[in-house]
Amino acid sequence: MTIKPSGKPLGAPPGDDRYLKGAPVAARILAEVRAEAEAASAQGWMPRLVSISVGDTDAVQVYVRNQRRKAEQATIEFEERHFPDSVTAGELEAAIRGMNVDPRVTGIIIQRPVPDHIPIRMLQGAVHPLKDVEGMHPASIGNIVYNQLDLAPCTAAASVELLKETGLELKGLEVVVVGHSEIVGKPIAFLLMSEGATVTVCHHMTRSVAAHARRADALFVAVGKPRLIKSDMVKPGAAVIDIGINAETAPDGTSRLVGDVDTENVREVAAWITPVPGGVGPVTVAILLRNTMVALRRQREFYEATYGAGTEAERLAS
User: Fold this and answer.
1) 201 to each of 10, 21, 152, how far by Cα in Å?
2) How far apart are CA 45 and CA 83, in angstroms?
3) Residue 203: how many CB atoms within 10 A of its CB?
4) Domain limits, CATH 3.40.50.720, in the chain
5) What is d(CA 264, CA 278) in angstroms, rounded to the nearest whole number?
6) Closest by alpha carbon to 62, among 130, 8, 111, 110?
7) Do residues 277 and 24 lie in contact, with contact meaning Cβ atoms separated by under 8 Å?
8) In the Cβ-directed half-sphere of 136, how many Cα atoms lie within 13 Å?
9) What is the overall mean pLDDT for the chain?
10) Cβ neighbours of residue 264 under 8 Å, at least 6 residues apart?
11) Residue 5 binned pLDDT confidence (cut-offs 50, 70, 90)
């Protein structure tokens, strides 16, 4: 990375343009998804996304409404299947198994959180890999290790997509990921290693997160701790992808969403930084819908390899 005397890399945006906003990236992805979905539907293959939610959680309903709205914009059918808190893990697993063999279902997403008596990993493992649009089946995670990157966990893929928007060359890029969760931190590391980046992953046992973070050309943060990353922890000219979403209450009692990065101060040092909200979130939903089309292509290839070319109607009848 070439650095100017000001501490910013050559070609980095000025002023407020340092905000790496998700909406334009999401709009581009949704336009691509819509074009593919319309073409597939015209050929008799209708993409259909099924959402599974358990219990009544306000945040989940917000997620579902947003997913439905974006799916409709992309001409992907969206169906919500809601289960009561009393549902058992076995009943949910049976429902998922039924969707796995239903040729009308392209993809399945399990909304989190689920009640404590239901093991989320069991549900993720029950979704057939061909319908795993969340990219959370063990087979989907494993495929990333072998550089099959087109169906990755949505938030991780969205975060990497935003880094690509900077135009930085990923090969040899020094990247630090703060947070090593199975759905965000670890997949980000694998995705970026597949792109040729040099990746360091920090976690709660890392001795000096700041020392690692200050080396990073690109810094990803996903730990759920508001304003953890301060300006003195960021390399001048770095790209900062803030994945955290935290509710912060001000002294006057008002509440607002903030990330894991002290955005107002870090933006004076970084060349690019994602806002919270409005950064990774919109792209995550777009990636979910892009994954739905990846799933449809894979299912179509499987069907045609097994039974020969045909439309979805012929598949349903077979």
Assistant:
1) 27, 24, 18
2) 28
3) 14
4) 148-281
5) 15
6) 111
7) no
8) 22
9) 92
10) none
11) very low
Q: In this predicted model, what pLDDT tens digit does every residue of 89-147 receive, in sequence order?
A: 999 999 999 999 999 999 999 999 999 999 999 999 999 999 999 999 999 988 998 88
How far apart CA 12 and CA 272 sit, in angstroms, is 8
* CATH 3.40.50.720 describes domain 148-281: yes
| DSSP one-letter string for the chain | --B-TTSSBTTPPPGGGGB--HHHHHHHHHHHHHHHHHHHHHTT---EEEEEEES--HHHHHHHHHHHHHHHHTT-EEEEEEE-TT--HHHHHHHHHHHHT-TT--EEEE-S---TTS-HHHHHHHS-GGG-TTS-SHHHHHHHHTT--SS--HHHHHHHHHHHHTT---TT-EEEEE---TTTHHHHHHHHHHTT-EEEEE-TT-S-HHHHHTT-SEEEE-SS-TT-B-GGGS-TT-EEEE---EEEE-TTS-EEEE-SB-HHHHTTT-SEE--TTTSHHHHHHHHHHHHHHHHHHHHHHHHHHHH-S--HHHHHH-
Rg (CA), the chain: 21
206-265 pLDDT, tens digit each: 999 999 999 999 999 999 999 999 999 999 999 999 999 999 888 888 889 999 999 999
Q: What is the pLDDT of residues 136-175, one digit of tens each?
A: 999 998 899 888 888 999 999 999 999 999 999 999 999 9
State the span(s) of the chain assigned CATH 3.40.50.10860: 45-133
Picking from 245, 299, 288, the residue whose alpha carbon sits closest to that of residue 68 is 288
Residues 282, 285: Cα–Cα separation, whole Å: 6
Amino acid 2: pLDDT: 46
Q: What angle do CA 126, 133, 159 make, to 5 degrees?
A: 125
Q: Tell me which CATH code domain 45-133 carries.
A: 3.40.50.10860
